[in-house]
C-alpha cells in the first residue's frame, strides 16, 4: 500500500525534546519495557499523537511534537493491515530518524476515563496500541 500522506506528522511521548533532536529506533517501547522498537512510529493526526503521549510510560507530561521524517516511511502495518485497511488512522513508521521540528502546545484531548481504561488494558496485556 502506498503512503498517501505528505504530513504534517506528529509523535507523542513523555520525553522532553527540543527542535533539531532526532528520534531514533532501537529504544525501549513507550508502552512495554520488554520491547525494543525497530521503527519510530508517528501519525498525521495530532489527536492520535496526543493519545500516544497520554498512555506512554514515564513521569513526564504528555507531549506532542511536530516531526519530519529523514528517510523512507511506510504505513504502520500493525494498524493498516490488521485493523483499519486504507490507513484511516494515518499511522506510519520509519527505520530512519524523525527530526523534531516543534512542540505543539495543544491538541484535542481524549476523555480521562478512556485514557485510564486504555492504560489499564495495556498494563494487563489486553490492549493494542495504535501508534
Automatic annotation (TrEMBL):
Protein name (record): NAD(+)--rifampin ADP-ribosyltransferase
Boundaries of every Rifampin ADP-ribosyltransferase domain copy: 9-107
A Pfam family the protein falls into: Arr-ms
Lineage: Bacteria, Pseudomonadati, Planctomycetota, Planctomycetia, Isosphaerales
NCBIfam families the UniProt entry points to: rifampin_ARR (NF033144)
